[in-house]
Amino acid sequence: MIDEKVLIQKINEKKEIFVKNRRMFHRIPELGFEERKTTETICEKLSQIGIEPIRLEPTGVVGYIGPDSEITIGLRADIDGLSVKECTGLSFRSEHPGKMHACGHDGHIAGLLGAAEILKEMEERLTVRVKLIFQPSEENTLGAKKVMEQGVLDDVAMIFGLHLFSDMTTGVISVEEGPRMAQTDRFFIDFYGKGGHAGKPHQCVDATVMAADFVMSVQTIVSREVDPAQGAVVTIGSLHSGTQYNVISGKATVEGTCRSFSENVASHLKEAIEKRAGAIAEYYGGSAEVQYDYGSHPPVYNDEMFSKMIQSESQKLLEDRTFSHIPSMMLGEDFSWYQTKVPGVFAFVGCGNPQKEVYPNHHPHFDIDEEALSDAVALHIAAVMAAMNFEAEKPEYNL
Ligand code: NI
Prior knowledge:
Blueprint: H1 4-13, H2 15-26, H3 36-48, E1 54-55, E2 61-65, E3 72-78, H4 105-121, E4 129-135, H5 143-149, E5 158-169, E6 172-174, E7 178-181, E8 183-192, E9 196-197, H6 207-225, E10 232-241, E11 247-248, E12 251-260, H7 263-284, E13 287-297, E14 300-302, H8 304-317, E15 322-323, H9 336-339, E16 344-352, H10 372-393
Parallel strand pairs: 3-4, 3-5, 5-16, 6-15
Antiparallel strand pairs: 1-2, 2-4, 6-16, 7-14, 8-12, 8-13, 9-11, 10-12
Helix pairs in contact: 2-4, 4-10, 6-7, 8-10
Bound molecules: nickel (II) ion.
């Protein structure tokens, strides 16, 4: 067993390193699958702490700590930035024009590197193997799949990951079982009518009216067709139709997204969108073409037993923090792909500084309270402690 007091002390002693690392990565944000500098820097850092970096294609890196155990726990951090022009004015702001770590992934990298350094120092006491997974391209939801295609999960029995959120105050943490983040689907619909003169509507089939009717009609899918306890979102993000005021539009284009937490709700939303588009177009004498991209990733669903185990270990390391119930979010996370293969837990970590004006994730002014970096480090270590307990107790569990 590893003494919690020693761990807490180590985390406290290394706070400055976590901050330094985070700031270093903050300067060099790169978009999905372009994280070359980021990957190189992570490799250098891993080598410095005695961990051999194993590069992934095209970007990303993994590394191992600990004995060749039956149980390997994966610790995952996403490493990509966003196409956002940074407006924070921070001394360590982005050096890459038009790109920014506006979602806190710089903090995720620093958190996992921090945990790696401490775990490496205690390597001989580990009874499970730790696999560090620095995953590229989370924002476009393609990274987890790409990593899995390269067999990264093949030797992993369970996985842990986390996200920093500024709309949660620093010190507030959620490690909860069940659905945590949504499945996200995307759809594109073209409504075809027959254009013509605004003064002769009887000779036309107005695509604008079709699209408008469709937009209003889908508003009742969630309120009337989905179990209120399950929750879902249908949002139309864009609608384009027509060219000028006295021309009836022959084509309207609608784009939107559906979010949900279960397979049956997700498939119902798809069916409902397709049915309405077709029926409404037909009703007006036009036609509709629907492209529905189902499940760019499934919902994030936390394993019950591991959530409890990791929360209990985390509380020992983070005594002054509040482990709260945070409702599941209608945001997406490709961490969910890992959870389709192995039991996994995804934690939410508050990084909103109550002393400052707080901007949400993805905002050009977004910043994290660097106090939260230690929480991220502690949570990764707690997940390893939970895996060690699991290894010691060997409960009947389908890994
Ligand atoms: Ni993010």
